Amino acid sequence: MVNEQASLPIIDVSPLLDLNSHRDNQQETATEIHQACRSWGFFYVKNHGVPLKLQEELIKFSRKFFARPLEEKMQIDMNKGGRAWRGYFPVGNELTSGKPDGKEGIYFGTEINDINHPKVRNNTPLHGRNQFPSGKSDDDEFRQVILTYMTAMESLGRAIMSALARSLKLDPNFFDKNYFGEEPTCLFRIFNYPASFCQQQGNENLWGVGEHTDYGMLTLLLQDDIGGLQVKTSRNEWIQAPPVPNTFVCNIGDMLDRMTGGYYRSTPHRVRNLSTTRDRLSFPFFLDPNWDAEVLPIPMKGMTNINDDAEHRWDKSSVHTFHGTYGEYLLKKVSRVFPDLAQEQTINK
Ligand SMILES: O=C(O)CCC(=O)C(=O)O
Ligand SMILES: [Fe+2]
Q1: What pLDDT is recorded for position 277?
Q2: Which residue has its alpha carbon closest to ligand 1 atom 1?
Q3: Residues within 5 A (CB) of ion ligand 2
Q4: Belongs to which family (predicted)?
Q5: Residue ranges of the chain with per-residue pLDDT less than 70
Q6: Euclidean distance between CA atoms 52 and 282, whole angstroms
Q7: Dist. CA 273 → ligand 2 center (Å)
Q8: How much is the pLDDT for 197?
Q9: What distance in Å separates the CA atoms of residue 87 and residue 234, rounded to the nearest whole number?
Q10: DSSP assignment of 8-27
Q11: Which residues form the pocket of ligand 1, taking CB atoms under 6 Å from any ligand atom?
Q12: What is the pTM of this model?
């Protein structure tokens, strides 16, 4: 059952982007973010400064890419991306909670061309060059749009995280200083949820993406006009997160849940494309801690922490008992989602 009445807040983030904006306005935005994180773990942002044209171009090029024949899409098959874990995967190849998802997609990360970059030299997983769509006359433009979009998302994400730091009574540069630095882990995905997938015989119990929480710090999601994203409230009810023009859906991930001792929770969500005629496109961008950052609880002034929640979580594992770097956490999680690739990693080690 989905509760159709409740709706997520829409927060105006323009005060965060304007250097001349009054401190009070920034504080007000931080307070709204605080309330949203406490109540939902999810919110929309508007007046975010990311050009509508850039969003439209991304959607247009992506739609054209997914309409290509499978053999063409497989030219940038993820299996060819090696340890960087980037490229295209076909419908059914990604698992959430052990079940295949009804979506295809392309994985991207920060583009590192420099073979002398320390993370490339020591063959660190999830680092390196992207596999961009190629072979069509406008693929160069598509590549440029993707890179421009990722840069825009990183800076919007940093701005939101500075307000979020303020909302926790921390220095606004807390996350930049302690977790992002010059090289946050930035992952970007383009997903296509084919029409009718979940309505097909045998697929009735499958989802576009099954219930899960996001692994990192902050997710910024652009979705097209189809809808299908659902969010689980603290009362265990599902609500819709429908498309709202020119906004991004933001949600907090496991690392923020861990850092705040559950004060800000990573909220479960899932997706089903209910359209029988149109594919659904979505574009999640994940702004996560630096690969080597050790993720530690934040000293929380005057805020009470709820702790262990393993029993109630979708994956029955606790984010609070984890010790180590973000890279270690992520690698463990990604290996579950792409078991074939994980196996390849072990063989290649
Ligand atoms: O497609 C969506 O709307 C959400 C995707 C998602 O939850 C994810 O990639 O973590
Ligand atoms: Fe997600």
Answers
A1: 94
A2: 282
A3: 214
A4: Belongs to the iron/ascorbate-dependent oxidoreductase family.
A5: 302-312, 339-349
A6: 15
A7: 15
A8: 82
A9: 35
A10: --EEE-HHHH-TTS-HHHHH
A11: 189, 191, 209, 214, 221, 223, 229, 269, 271, 282, 284
A12: 0.94
